[in-house]
Amino acid sequence: MSATAVAQRLKLPRARGRDAHARREAWTRRLPLLPALLFTIIVTQIPFLLTLFYSLFSWNLAKPGSPHWIGLQNYGAVFTDPVFFAALLHTIEITFISVLIATVFGLGLAVLLDRKFIGRGIVRTMLISPFLVMPAAAALLWKTTMLDPVYGIVNWVIGWFGISPVAFVSVHPLGSVIATVVWQWTPFEMLILLAGLQSQDRGVLEAARVDGASALASFREITLPHLRSYLELGVLLGAIYVVNTFDAIYMITQGGPGTATTNLPFYIYQRAFEGFDIGQAAALGVVTVVGTILVATVALRTMFSIFIQDNTARA
Amino acid sequence: MAGITYEHVSCRYPGSDTLSVEDLSLEIPDGEFMVLVGPSGSGKSTALRLLAGLEQLSEGRIDIDGRDVSGVDARDRDIAMVFQNYALYPNKTVGENIGFALKMQGVDRAERDKRVREVASMLAIEEFLGRKPRQLSGGQRQRVAMGRAIIRRPKAFLMDEPLSNLDAKLRVQTRVQIAELQQRLATTTVYVTHDQGEAMTLGSRVAVLKDGTLQQCAAPRELYENPVNAFVAGFIGLPQMNLIRLPLSDGRVRLSDEDLPLPAAVVRDATQRGAKEVIVGVRPEHVTVGESSSQGVAAEVVLVESLGADSYVHASLAGTDATFVARTEGYDSRQRGSNVRLRVDPQRIYGFDAATEERLGVSEHQVDHDASQPAPASVSR
Amino acid sequence: MATVTGTISHRRPRQPLGAAVRARLGAIAWGSVAWLAAIIFFFPVFWMVLTSFKPESAAYTSPPKFVFSPTLSQYKQVFDAGMGPFLANSAISTVISVLLVLVLATPAAYALSMRPVEKWRDVLFFFISTKMLPVVAAIVPIYLAVRDVGMLDSIPTLIVLYTAMNLPIAVWMMRSFFLEVPGEILEAARMDGADLRHELSEVVLPVVAPGLAATALICAIFSWNEFFFAVTLTSIRAATMPVFLVGFISSEGLYWAKLAAAATLASVPVLIAGWIAQRQLVRGLSMGAIK
After folding, report:
1. Which of A115, A129, A267 to mutate to test the interface with C (most CBs of C within 10 A)?
2. Interchain contact, A210 vs B76, CB within 8 Å
3. Nearest-by-Cβ selection for C290 from A47, A192, A246
4. Between B155 and which of A241, B2, B223, B356 could a Cys-Cys bridge form, CB atoms 3.0 to 4.6 Å apart?
5. For residue A311, is pLDDT > 50?
6. Residue A244 falls within a domain, yes or no?
7. How many CB pairs under 8 A join B and C?
8. What is the count of structural domains for chain A?
9. How far apart are CA C166 and CA C105, in angstroms?
């Protein structure tokens, strides 16, 4: 006779046993998750909490004396700091322009790659290379071999069209940084949009053709709406990565001339490692984090909707 | 409203020398419902797609309404297509799906909406006009796909296995609706299916394809009664015709321990060809099952399928490993293992050349396998 | 029986030349544009590799030189300048952090997909949120903590940080790979008498093995290319390739060929890895949001 039957016969209470079993079961499920979870919490959350903590102190490693409490004064300094606003502006500029151009280029390249032609595989491999080159290396190469006023390739090419050489890095520092970032991130956008293009149902495109749609009409009416969620994903993710641009600025302009190309990540770095101002750097960090949380919440909600849509949509 | 002609059409698989469609010639007059049927790989879908302009022909030409369309792109051929998995535009509503072709033609909004509603009511899908395809069931999507085709009043309807994704009951219902619709609209229709039952019930003429070549094109009855080779004989008709390869000696074939009476014309033809073997065919409804005490070929019952009104008795012929299927009336209660005797109606035996599988005994009549003309109303054997 | 009439000619009609030729020309034009775009985008990479084989005199010229006598001296110089340890540090920190990530992420991903924890959505959201927040913001306490523990300029520090940096991506990717294992296979295995251990080793693992490789690849790329932590937390002993490149900033244009050699060496491993696993690249970067 089964255990449950015996229990029933003896009218024993079963509730407690079942609870214990359920709890044990829940813990065996949680166990594999714990190492990764704990590791992440310790290495990522504690520093942020500490950043919050430090931001309430006046603390400069170069000045003698231990840190002392000043409450929210650091934040006051941040919001009256012209460099902060310059850095904020530059962050937005770099992100917006780079992601926009990279997405447009990426779409064009993805459309090109969506059709068969000789050597398509090689072309694709060539096109993703900018993204694979070490960003720090790429930045240096652009600064020197590409954009140099005398010996750079870009000036050599525009010379064919009769345009006189430009000292890009000194005269257009932001543009130089943006050019490097666009070059690096276009393949990323291209791959995402290519995945979108290739996930189209070929039958639907044939149906549009039979229904009399020209190639352009088909792209406008069928392909673009399909690509919408991929475009959103590409732009959001690209923005999140590009907002944190550090390598290019460090290597090409060091934030200069002056503060012309300083963005928020680089400014925080400067305050911490060149100004040794822990309190201020921490406050800047908190402000950046809060701003990013706001944007990220919106981003994740959209991303999750993409995710949910994908999972439930096609029957 | 137009006639369609395939003239010696061939299509090569991309990057290979094998032909997916080989030397297909077919004439489909205006208003006809032509069914292309065959097993998978027979080239029927390719033939349809060539007509649509979605594939390129390697040889030959296709005419629609008397005009050579070989160089014309799919979007300019004025034909409508219903795809196997419907291929509805996922980001558009049902109404927008149906009206899309009209939008491409530049028809203005008001006129478009009017015609969309007309078609929707014809197909009983008005309540779905605002919904997206993913919110519809399979049957509803199928009707939207039909609506998309109907609204265009095209020269021809092309349908690529439109019923295969529906459940059995819905399939039968929709089949009837398609037939009615086509009769009402009188538009030339080319319909592809692998289901010979669909082909027989829908087509005014049926073209049987195998491995890219046309086997026979004729009215359903003609295919059933006068198959031109063993393949067509075996493909058309369910359950399949009993086909068995037997040695021919002295103009006679022996089935198990009995002599089988072949029609004289068949024997004459076979002897003329010097054939040593003949493929003998007889349909289940022309095989009678009798008790072991009666006349006929000895056999042992292997399986009895009772469908209610009819039963099919599968019996293994004594001394061979061949099984014949016989149709009996009503509910057959014979048991597996019981001994029976099978008798074959001598008027209904078909003979096929063992080497070429061509039908024997028809050489007195002219036959053209490039059968392009519609069958005349009366048929003589 | 049907009879023959002669309305259809039995001569084979001429091939439809027009359409086929036009299609061919269109394809060639399309391909040409694609190739042009590829060449333009790839050119800086090509130029990097080309320049690395130049003697300095040929690297710093106007107009730029495409023909020259190649030499390996730049590579030799770069190694002589002490690049070896940097390369080794990069390799060690990358390999170990990737292994660590896999060890931590795989069970976690399992717990979020196959036998999910109750609050799996929240946990997933949490992991992703750590990726969203700018690392720079937390560098201050990290630097201080690392300094106070005496772990500045040490490889284990990098390993720990790289692992934390890659965990969210790895968990997301592995989870989406686990989700791809068809439920039916698991049920069939259970029917066949497999216990959990066998279910994992015989059924699940073979199916997700390519996914493991892809995840490892993505994490390796990010670890190898990582610049910020390397620059702020290391100086001599644990410095990685990106830090080595920093030394070239103030070159004043004298050592372009040498820079190119260093850049090439720094980029080649990831270039090759990325070329091999292009599809996995997208999945990792978009954190598995694209199937």
Report:
1. A129
2. no
3. A192
4. B2
5. no
6. yes
7. 56
8. 1
9. 9
Minimal-distance CA residue of chain B relative to C22: B71
A207–B81 CB contact, under 8 Å: yes
- CA–centroid distance for A112 within its chain: 25
Lookup result for tokens 């830090």 = C243
Which residues of chain C make contact with A119, given a CB cutoff of 8 A?
31, 35
Subunits in contact with chain C (3 or more CB pairs closer than 8 Å) = A, B
Report the phi/psi class of residue A162: left, alpha or beta, with left for phi > 0 and alpha for psi in -120 to 50. left
Segments in chain A forming alpha helices (H): 3-9, 15-30, 34-40, 46-54, 73-79, 82-113, 120-132, 135-141, 153-160, 168-171, 173-198, 202-210, 215-218, 224-243, 247-252, 264-269, 278-312
Would the CB atoms of A209 and B75 count as touching at under 8 Å? yes
The alpha carbon of residue C291 is apart from the nearest alpha carbon of chain B, in Å, by 18
In a domain, A239, yes or no: yes
* Four-point Cα dihedral A218, A219, A221, A227, nearest 10: 140
Q: Which residue has the higher pLDDT, B170 or A7?
A: B170
CB count within 10 Å of CB A312 equals: 9
Is residue B143 classed as helix, strand or coil in its secondary structure? helix
pLDDT digits (tens, 9 = 90+) for A280-296: 888 998 998 888 878 77
B70/C5 touch (CB, cutoff 8 Å), yes or no: no
Q: What is the mean pLDDT of chain B?
A: 88
Residues B74, B80, B84, B89, CA torsion sign: positive
- Host H or E run for residue A56: none
The pLDDT value recorded for residue A6 is 57
**Nearest residue to B279 (alpha-carbon basis) of B326, B232, B238:** B232
> In CATH, which of 2.40.50.140, 2.30.110.10, 3.40.50.720, 3.40.630.10 is domain B239-353?
2.40.50.140
Q: CB burial class (10 A; 0-12, 13-18, 19+) of residue A157?
A: middle
CA atoms within 13 A on the CB side of B120: 20
Q: Do B88 and A206 touch (CB under 8 A)?
A: no
Q: What is the pTM of this model?
A: 0.82
Looking at domain B4-225, its CATH class is: alpha beta
Token duo for residue C224? 């190898």
CATH number for A152 = 1.10.3720.10
CA distance B93 to chain A (A): 12
With a CB cutoff of 8 Å and minimum separation 6, the contacts of B319 are B256, B257, B298
Q: Tell me which residue in B61, B222, B366 faces C13 most closely, judged by beta carbons.
A: B61
CA distance B72 to chain A (A): 12
**CATH fold of C82-254+263-285:** MetI-like fold (1.10.3720)
Q: Low-confidence residues of chain C, pLDDT below 50?
A: 1-12, 14-15
Please check whether residue A145 lies inside any domain of the structure: yes
And the tokens for C238? 């644990």
Does ipTM top 0.90? Answer: no
Cross-chain CB nearest to A204 (options B76, B81, B89): B89
Residue C2 has its nearest CB partner, among B56, B60, B373, at B373
Within-domain flag for A95: yes
For B250-306, the pLDDT digits (tens) are: 778 888 778 888 888 888 888 888 888 899 999 999 999 988 888 888 889 999 999
Phi and psi, residue B205, nearest 5°: -135, 150
pLDDT in tens, B323-334: 999 999 988 888
In one-letter notation, the amino acid at residue A87 is: A
A195 vs C282: CB contact, 8 Å cut-off? yes
Structure-token pair, residue A36: 């990764």
What are the residue ranges spanned by the domains of chain B?
A: 4-225, 239-353
For residues A65 and A87, give the distance between their C-alpha atoms in angstroms, rounded to a whole number: 30
Q: Do A134 and C161 touch (CB under 8 A)?
A: no
